[in-house]
Amino acid sequence: MAPPEPEVFDVVIFGASGFTGKYVIREALKFLNSSSTSPLRSLAVAGRSRDRVAAALRWAAAPAPPPEDVPILAADTSDPASLAALAARARVVLSCAGPFRLHGHAVAAACAAAGADCIDISGEPEFMERVEAELHEPAARTGSLIVSACGFDSVPAELGFLFHSRQWEPPSALVSVEAYVYLQSTKRIVGNIGTYESAVLGVANAAQLQALRRSRPRRPRPNIPGPPPPKGSLIEGQNPLGMWAMKLPSADTVVLKRTLSTLTEHPEGLPGAEETPEYAEHRKKFWSSVKPAHFGVKIASRSLMMLVRFIFTGIFIGLLANFSFGRSLLLKYPEFFSTGMFRRAGPTEEEVKSASFKMWFVGHGYSNVDSSLELGRSKPDKEVITKVSGPEIGYITTPIVLVQCALVLLSQRANLPKGGVYTPGAVFGPTDLRQRLQENGLSFEVNATRAMR
Fold first, then answer.
1. Is 407 left (phi over 0), alpha (psi -120 to 50) or beta?
2. Which of 95, 100, 111, 324 has the fewest beta carbons closer than 10 A?
3. What is the spatial distance between Cα 379 and Cα 366, in angstroms, rounded to a whole number?
């Protein structure tokens, strides 16, 4: 008698015992068999150490006991066979083990081979672009949909931009959008240590990213009316928000540019594997209302000192990350070299609960693009400000976003692309993801629309 086939789970959380992974478990448990309409009927958690994953599951389920129907799977990124076995038992893998340049590619490759969908919380451009370069074709063949940056990097930025862009109804035309990220807390703000480690490794391997980009065909650029906006200074003291702000080398910018390139190649969006006629019509209508624009991200603060701390952190990383001894110092003493913004122990539960974010999108463009360009007016005459806001970015917003992306995959898979490597905006833009996020703690709103002098 043949042994029974192993159970296939709707979702497997890999890297479940990590800083963010345990919060992802807690968020996922809210939707496990939560109602007759929940698409999440089965869940497994996975990692290198069964004991650590079990402890994370107990923490996530508290004060209730851990559910007995959530099994623990052993898998290690250094063991391809274990990842292959994991991917074979998953409809959707939530990849939470970073830094992703060290651990993410093996997970995505296993999913591409098995035909499982894979979404992760990476904010590392080289990892994301390398996965796209090396795994898009294999994933497209097996029907594996691989989507990176399904956390605070970069769903609030992408959906926030799409929401903002659709406020510019013809004959108005959007030219540029600056996103201002403002972090606040009633206690101390402590960043995700994974973000810090990824920044250190990203600077250390910047040459590899540039070489990768040079080796790939240049993707088409969207047609944006009018001249590009001036670059401006590193720090600005005057803006529509009345705050100090500083340019941020954010993954959001890179991810959104890839989405806009995909839209340029596919003006009606990416067709679904077996999409309904109604969704196909909705998809085409949605993308026809999106206007591309120049995009940048800045960190905003009411205190100039906060931006100075960011500058010093950037200087330390820039000076030391390119040397092995310097990298070891940066990674060993994150609190010192980040002037207290990151610490290896991570934030306390109270610090997480007390934090939140606001992300303003300040868009400039033409109120009537045809007459403005005909008259030779190069200066935009219209400003629109929208805002996305929500709870703490690394351990609350990121799990909310990741889990809701998974629920969309489970409930609407036929309407999404059959397979391949894409950005969150390209895949989830026309879906109900924004509505889901609004129902789970995030908000999207229009702040102001006004003429510019």
1. alpha
2. 324
3. 8
